């Protein structure tokens, strides 16, 4: 009798684990999604208002350093067939209220070092 119960339990375990890919799991995006074409609009010398207009509000403004903004985006995939999990970040540093440096996982445009007023 115990052997038959064990066989039933094992077969149910195998059956349910085989069906785990049938369950729909949603993707979970968190943070600021930044499009590459928007990031390429950044230029040295842009004001904070201009950056916020182009990229949106940062996910974090440092409380102790108002001249550093953090943009962060993370995507956790619900199912493997839709791709792998990834994350991207960008840190913008301002000097005197204008963009000084941009670091992170995004490529900047070739014109980044050319201020807007010199075009």
If classified by CATH, what would the architecture of the domain at 27-104 be? 2-Layer Sandwich
How many angstroms separate the termini? 85 Å
Order of helices and strands: HEHHEEEE
The biggest beta sheet, please? 5 strands, antiparallel
Commentary on this structure:
It is a single chain. This protein has helices spanning 2-18, 36-39, 48-55; strands at residues 28-31, 60-61, 68-76, 86-95, 98-104. The chain is elongated. Strands 1, 2, 3, 4 and 5 form a five-stranded antiparallel β-sheet that branches. The protein has 119 residues and is of the alpha+beta class. It contains three helices and five strands, in the order H-E-H-H-E-E-E-E. The chain starts with a helix and ends in a 15-residue tail after the last strand. It has a domain at 27-104: 2-Layer Sandwich (Beta-lactamase Inhibitory Protein, Chain:B, domain 1), CATH 3.30.1450.
Layout: helices, strands, pairs:
Elements: H1 2-18, E1 28-31, H2 36-39, H3 48-55, E2 60-61, E3 68-76, E4 86-95, E5 98-104
Antiparallel strand pairs: 1-3, 2-3, 3-4, 4-5
Family: Belongs to the BamE family.
GO cellular component, one term: Bam protein complex
Subunit structure: Part of the Bam complex.
Describe the structure concisely for a colleague.
With 119 residues, this protein is an alpha+beta fold. Helix content is 24%, strand content 27%. It has a domain at 27-104: Beta-lactamase Inhibitory Protein, Chain:B, domain 1, CATH 3.30.1450.
